[in-house]
């Protein structure tokens, strides 16, 4: 009796064992087709002369590392990289520091004011980036933008007819206000949620002992919220480094010049717009390698925190 | 006591000031869309439109391609979500209910992939979709090309969030059904599916917002008025006109933001799940 029973049992185990693989196979297939294969293809094009003509012919001409050499010898690439790093650092620090401060402030507000501010933040969070850009363009407009009017009326200076997009620094500063404004709600609400984990008694005890606000924050609050701050910082760095839509649409076409490129815009202009896809692929690979290297910090922490279990 | 009260008052005043600054752009968008052109173009801003006009909304709605592009957006988003939810749900079940070799690697892959900036992939996706290998199709300027991209864009976080919702379902429930003689699949369909339905809705809404708001690939792959999506329509609103129609632009912006805001408010409480997975861009 033992032998005939065994075979179906083994067969069944094989079937059962393959179930999870069957279940994940559609996702794996899509990620392979729309991600893994394109990345392989990206590497291939980066080693080829691939322009509009080659696009129509469906194949390029192998030229080795020439595209990479051309990009790495290009001043614009290095300037853009440096500018993007500074831009990212500015945006991320404003978002994280500002967001944490507002989250701490939320704790000290009357319930009604707190709810009001929270609802306002969620409204901002819900704004589609493309919509927010249009509102920014209207508010910062040279002739009758409300920003110039308010700054002039408050006697901060004479901003009548001031053009915010006449210098790369000022253009990117405007992009920063837009990006930080859009990213703050996420940080505030996440940090605020984390703050509820801070033991109440400990804060009170420290305050009774006469500890100043800064010390309470550093020694009691910070240790509790620092894991979430780490993750938020990683995420913000990755997002802001690869930002495209807000910068590209806010500065708008004729004003976009190499002097105000950030990595995303540089990619679009040099890679796609100029139809030199081979060289563009080289730029893409360099960008993706930088982002991948940075995302290791995030992924590693996610694994350690136990999110991957 | 009064000193403490004064301090509390100060904090609350600061809170209100931050509220005002943060909400102002949204207020300004809505307020502008109801103003008359005279009020909009005057050098002295009008804060509240005294005699609100609906003219700008009419102009925006009658602007060429508005309805066509809304339809395009809806088609792309709905098809992408439908496919992505089925795929993501199956994978989430595998991750949550089975222990298998490569499971952890798959999870790490999902978060890693989520972090890649879309802009880095515009070249290969453009070239590949202009001439799809094996099938020999040109999907540039076809909605299907964008649908494929959106499916892959929303999959990683959808798997991740759905897995979070599945985790919340007690194993005993499923086991009880199996003891009753149901197969694993039967147990899954009758017990698991209804329980996870709210999670599926929340994740779908999430995916809806992400794809409705998407600009880069919409702009890259669809560049003809009648085949573009609504975000590209909005970004081209002022193109080719001498004097900017601010009222129409703000009315159009308001119209496009409305569905997103409504959906966002609906799922806002559930959103916390996917956040650390980097689900929604700030």
Structure description:
The complex is a heterodimer of chains A (309) and B (282). Chain A is 77% helix and 1% strand. By secondary structure, chain A is mostly helical. The two termini of chain A are 42 Å apart. Chain B has helices at residues 2-34, 37-41, 55-62, 66-97, 103-114, 122-130, 143-167, 171-179, 184-213, 216-221, 230-235, 246-267, 272-275. Mean pLDDT of chain B is 87; it is low at 276-282. The longest helix of chain B has 33 residues, at 2-34. Chains A and B meet through helix 1, helix 4, helix 5, helix 6 and helix 8 of A and helix 1, helix 4, helix 5, helix 6 and helix 7 of B.
Quick recap:
Chain A is mainly alpha-helical. Helix content of chain A is 77%, strand content 1%. In chain B, helix 1 (2-34) crosses helix 12 (246-267), helix 7 (143-167) packs across helix 9 (184-213) and helix 9 (184-213) runs antiparallel to helix 12.
Protein topology:
The complex is a heterodimer of chains A (309) and B (282).
Chain A (H helix, E strand, L loop, with lengths): L1 H45 L1 E2 L2 H6 L3 E2 L3 H7 L2 H33 L3 H16 L2 H11 L6 H8 L14 H28 L4 H9 L4 H29 L3 H7 L11 H11 L3 H29 L4
Chain B lengths: L1 H33 L2 H5 L13 H8 L3 H32 L5 H12 L7 H9 L12 H25 L3 H9 L4 H30 L2 H6 L8 H6 L10 H22 L4 H4 L7
Helix pairs in contact in B: 1-12, 3-12, 4-7, 4-9, 5-7, 7-9, 8-9, 9-12
């Amino acid at each position: 009796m033992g032998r005939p029973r065994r075979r179906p049992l083994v067969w069944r185990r094989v079937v059962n064992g393959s179930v999870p693989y069957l279940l994940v196979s559609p996702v794996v297939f899509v990620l392979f087709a729309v991600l893994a294969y394109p990345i392989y293809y990206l590497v291939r094009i980066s080693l080829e002369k691939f322009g509009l003509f080659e696009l129509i012919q469906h194949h390029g001409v192998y030229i080795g590392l020439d595209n990479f050499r051309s990009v790495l010898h290009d001043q614009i690439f290095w300037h853009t990289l440096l500018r993007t790093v500074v831009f990212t650092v500015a945006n991320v620090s404003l978002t994280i520091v500002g967001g944490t401060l507002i989250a701490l402030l939320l704790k000290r507000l009357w319930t009604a004011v707190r709810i009001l501010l929270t609802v306002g933040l969620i409204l901002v969070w819900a704004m589609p980036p493309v919509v927010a850009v249009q509102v920014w363009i209207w508010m910062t407009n040279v002739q009758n933008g409300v920003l110039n009017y308010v700054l002039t009326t408050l006697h901060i200076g004479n901003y009548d007819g001031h053009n915010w997009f006449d210098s790369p620094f000022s253009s990117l500063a405007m992009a920063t206000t837009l990006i930080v404004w859009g990213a703050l709600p996420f940080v505030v609400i996440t940090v605020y949620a984390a703050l509820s984990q801070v033991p109440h008694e400990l804060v009170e005890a420290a305050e009774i002992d006469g500890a100043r606000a800064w010390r309470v924050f550093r020694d009691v609050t910070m240790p509790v919220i620092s894991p979430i701050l780490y993750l938020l910082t990683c995420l913000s760095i990755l997002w802001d480094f690869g930002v495209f839509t807000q910068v590209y649409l806010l500065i708008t076409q004729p004003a976009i010049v190499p002097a105000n490129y950030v990595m995303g815009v540089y990619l679009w202009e040099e890679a796609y717009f100029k139809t030199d896809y081979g060289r563009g692929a080289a730029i893409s690979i360099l960008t993706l390698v930088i982002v991948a290297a940075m995302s290791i910090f995030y992924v590693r922490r996610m694994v350690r925190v136990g999110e991957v279990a | 006591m009064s000193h403490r009260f004064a301090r509390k008052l100060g904090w609350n005043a600061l809170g209100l000031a931050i509220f005002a600054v943060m909400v102002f752009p949204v207020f300004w968008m809505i307020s502008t869309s109801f103003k008359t052109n005279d009020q909009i173009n005057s050098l002295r801003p009008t804060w509240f439109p005294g005699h609100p006009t609906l003219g700008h909304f009419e102009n925006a709605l009658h602007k060429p391609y508005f309805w066509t592009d809304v339809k395009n957006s809806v088609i792309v988003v709905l098809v992408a979500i439908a496919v992505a939810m089925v795929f993501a749900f199956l994978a989430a079940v595998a991750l949550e209910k089975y222990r298998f070799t490569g499971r952890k690697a798959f999870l790490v892959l999902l978060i890693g992939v989520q972090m890649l900036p879309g802009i880095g992939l515009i070249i290969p996706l453009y070239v590949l979709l202009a001439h799809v290998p094996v099938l020999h199709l040109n999907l540039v300027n076809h909605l299907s090309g964008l649908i494929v991209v959106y499916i892959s864009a929303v999959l990683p976080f959808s798997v991740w969030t759905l897995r979070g919702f599945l985790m919340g379902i007690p194993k005993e429930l499923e086991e009880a059904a199996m003891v009753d003689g149901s197969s694993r699949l039967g147990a899954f369909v009758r017990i698991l599916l209804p329980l996870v339905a709210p999670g599926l809705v929340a994740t779908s809404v999430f995916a809806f917002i992400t794809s409705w708001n998407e600009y880069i690939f919409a702009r890259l792959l669809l560049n003809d008025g009648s085949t573009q999506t609504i975000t590209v329509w909005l970004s081209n609103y002022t193109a080719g006109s001498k004097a900017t129609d601010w009222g129409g632009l703000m009315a159009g912006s308001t119209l496009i933001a409305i569905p997103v805001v409504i959906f966002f408010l609906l799922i806002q409480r559930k959103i916390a799940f996917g956040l650390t997975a980097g689900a929604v861009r700030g």
